[in-house]
Amino acid sequence: MATPLEKRNELLAKKVIKGLESRHFEAYYCPTTEEALKKALEIIPEGSSVTWGGSVTVRELGLAKALNEGNYTAYDRDQAKSPEESADIMRKAFTCDYYVTSANAISEDGELVNVDGNGNRVAAICFGPKNVLVIAGMNKVAKDIDAAIVRARTIAAPINQMRFMGKTGCSVTGACENCKSQESICSQIVITRLTKPAKRIKVILVGEDYGF
To answer: Which residue in 34, 86, 103, 210 has its CB near the most CB atoms, within 10 A?
Structure first.
């Protein structure tokens, strides 16, 4: 029997998917990690070139490992031997068949919000790779676009800054200080309100908490 949280996630996911599809995204809901991983590998054809950014979700889900070990041309910056090689892998994203990422927040009516420091992730979401696959836990869903931006700035950004050991106000206070530091990871704030061409961006919502 489904728990109250599982029921809530399923019902809310239906609303979010309706919003995403109205904005021309291809969208799915997977209640479990196992189903989400299976769906992701169904979406990405074998033989594809694929890369991903610094997403915790992609790693926690086991997708990075599966792509590295599977029949794919995988560009993994975690395996880079130098900052220069890492930067080169980031640039390869723009010519890949698939770019895999998460979202910092998704509004209930289907808008994606992402904040970025270097801009490589949001750039790939906007343009370049033939397909973008966004995988997000239901913890990333926010009521509306304003709440999604607040979530991205005040929850995701401070935690990610601490993960990257950046020296900004939020890494000291745990709260967004609206800084202008060169180490800020909020250089770019991008709202994706629809995808062009249709279905270029595919979204998998997972009925579990993933990432920040």
So the answer is: 103
Q: Please, which residues have CB within 8 angstroms of residue 18's CB and are 6 or more apart in sequence?
A: 110
What's the rounded Cα separation, in Å, for the pair 41 and 47? 12
DSSP 8-state assignment for residue 140: G
- Distance, CA of 166 to CA of 110 (rounded, Å): 31
Dump pLDDT digits (tens) for 107-128: 999 999 999 999 999 999 999 9
Q: Which DSSP helix (H) or strand (E) runs through 202?
A: strand 201-206
Exposure string for 104-114, b = 16+ CB within 10 A, e = fewer: bbbbbbbbbbb
* Model pLDDT for residues 89-106, shown as the tens digit of each residue: 899 999 999 999 999 999
Q: Which helix (H) or strand (E) holds 26?
A: strand 26-30
3-state secondary structure labels for all residues of 83-124: HHHHHHHHHHHHHCCEEEECCCEEECCCCEEEEECCCHHHHH
Domain annotation for the chain: domains and CATH numbers = 4-104+117-141+193-206 (3.40.50)
Bridge partner residues of 113 (DSSP): 105, 191
